[in-house]
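Here is the promised in-class demo. Please do not try to memorize the tokens; focus on the logic of going from shape to residues.
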């Protein structure tokens, strides 16, 4: 849940900061590009922007061990951290341990986000590492049930196979690719 810090040599790129301004009302933003393209740096810069807007901005770096239960624990932890509330998401964590499973846990977490009543952005980096069961079950469930005060920003090296066509058609989802991340001569 620790947000990477861009090095001192990383300069803010005005056009990508402007893209945040243009896309910040979207339900989901996917940044898809190969390793070394600047995805994590961009997400970290956008997270700073979100924090400056006095919104909650959680960060979760995914790895291949993030099965459904571990993913839920990580998501709760990153949101607890940004909200400064050690009790946030307790019901979700209890549901993960119980027979109800991760879907009920995700529902409880989303209800807690609604109760927080503040804009909340979850930055999920390295989402391409999610195990298939998590990527195909919990991530779509999360996307389809996001409360109005929450959005997802997902960094990945490859397409996740998420059912995004309906979100894209309604203008609720945006995708940033390698072309937008490439440095321009003026940068």
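The designed amino acids, position by position:
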């Amino acid at each position: 849940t620790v947000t990477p810090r861009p090095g001192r040599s990383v300069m803010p790129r005005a056009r990508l900061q402007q893209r945040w301004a243009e896309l910040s009302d979207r339900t989901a933003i996917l940044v898809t590009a190969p390793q070394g393209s600047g995805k994590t740096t961009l997400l970290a810069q956008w997270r700073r922007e979100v924090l400056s807007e006095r919104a909650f901005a959680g960060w979760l770096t995914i790895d291949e061990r993030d099965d459904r239960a571990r993913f839920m624990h990580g998501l709760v932890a990153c949101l607890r951290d940004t909200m400064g509330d050690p009790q946030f998401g307790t019901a979700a964590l209890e549901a993960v341990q119980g027979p109800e499973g991760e879907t009920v846990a995700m529902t409880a977490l989303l209800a807690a986000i609604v109760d927080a009543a503040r804009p909340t952005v979850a930055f999920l980096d390295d989402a391409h590492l999610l195990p298939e069961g998590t990527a195909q079950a919990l991530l779509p469930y999360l996307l389809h049930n996001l409360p109005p005060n929450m959005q997802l920003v997902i960094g990945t090296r490859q397409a996740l196979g998420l059912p995004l066509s309906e979100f894209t058609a309604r203008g609720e989802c945006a995708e940033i690719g390698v072309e937008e991340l490439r440095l321009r001569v003026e940068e």
